[in-house]
């Protein structure tokens, strides 16, 4: 009988914990996202949607010259100013063919700058803190690691953006061929 009672308590406890998690999301994350969305839309309105769209148009120009703008600068600016997860909305200013690659670049860049800019992804700062505690225990410099992590992150998002753009082009070509 006692085992059945413990099972029942554990069973309902699972749902209570789920409810607490849900309430935490509704109380913490949802209002934050609403305020961020409002702030971003206000900022875009203040700067002027045409100027922001022009940045997207410049980044969307064809050619290898625009890869760094599209897959390094634009994701960095988005992640730095809008943080995770609002940064991904900057892709709306790019043509459809570049959106998957921009998203891949931006989502891949929410960890590398944490050592320099912890505001970018405070929910996952524990990853950097764990690495930092190990580096500190070894007597090594955190600044060097933070800068290297940031620079390698920029190179990685550029590579990911270019590769994802190529994959997207192939997939879109297949879709067009099937429709013909």
List the helices and strands and how they pair.
Layout: H1 2-47, H2 49-59, H3 67-86, H4 99-107, H5 125-137, H6 142-179
Helix pairs in contact: 1-2, 3-4, 3-6, 4-6
What can you see in these coordinates?
With 180 residues, the chain is mainly alpha-helical. Helices cover 76% and strands 0% of the residues. The model has no long low-confidence stretch (mean pLDDT 85).
Keywords summarizing the entry:
6 helices; 76% helix
**Tally of contiguous helical segments:** 6
Q: Considering DSSP H and I runs of 4 or more, what fraction of the residues is helical? A: over 70%
Q: N-to-C SSE series?
A: HHHHHH
Low-confidence stretches: none
Compute the average pLDDT. 85
Structural class, from secondary structure content?
mainly alpha
Assembly state of the chains shown: single chain
N-end to C-end Cα span: 68 Å
The percentage of residues in β strands lies in: under 5%
Secondary structure tally: strands? 0
Shape: globular
Give a brief description.
This protein is about 75% helix and about 0% strand.
């Amino acid at each position: 009988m006692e085992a059945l009672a413990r099972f029942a308590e554990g069973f309902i406890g699972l749902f209570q914990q789920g409810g607490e998690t849900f309430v935490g999301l509704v109380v913490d994350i949802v209002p934050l996202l609403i305020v961020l969305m409002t702030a971003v839309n206000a900022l875009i309105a203040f700067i002027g949607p045409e100027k922001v769209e022009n940045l997207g148009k410049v980044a969307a120009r064809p050619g290898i010259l625009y890869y760094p703008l599209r897959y390094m600068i634009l994701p960095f600016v988005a992640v730095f100013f809008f943080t995770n997860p609002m940064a991904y909305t900057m892709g709306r200013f790019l043509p459809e063919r570049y959106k998957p690659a921009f998203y891949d670049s931006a989502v891949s860049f929410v960890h590398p700058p944490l050592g320099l800019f912890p505001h970018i992804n405070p929910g996952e700062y524990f990853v950097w803190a764990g690495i930092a505690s190990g580096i500190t225990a070894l007597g090594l410099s955190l600044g060097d690691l933070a800068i290297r992590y940031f620079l390698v992150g920029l190179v990685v998002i550029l590579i990911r953006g270019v590769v994802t753009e190529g994959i997207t082009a192939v997939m879109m070509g297949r879709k067009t061929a099937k429709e013909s």
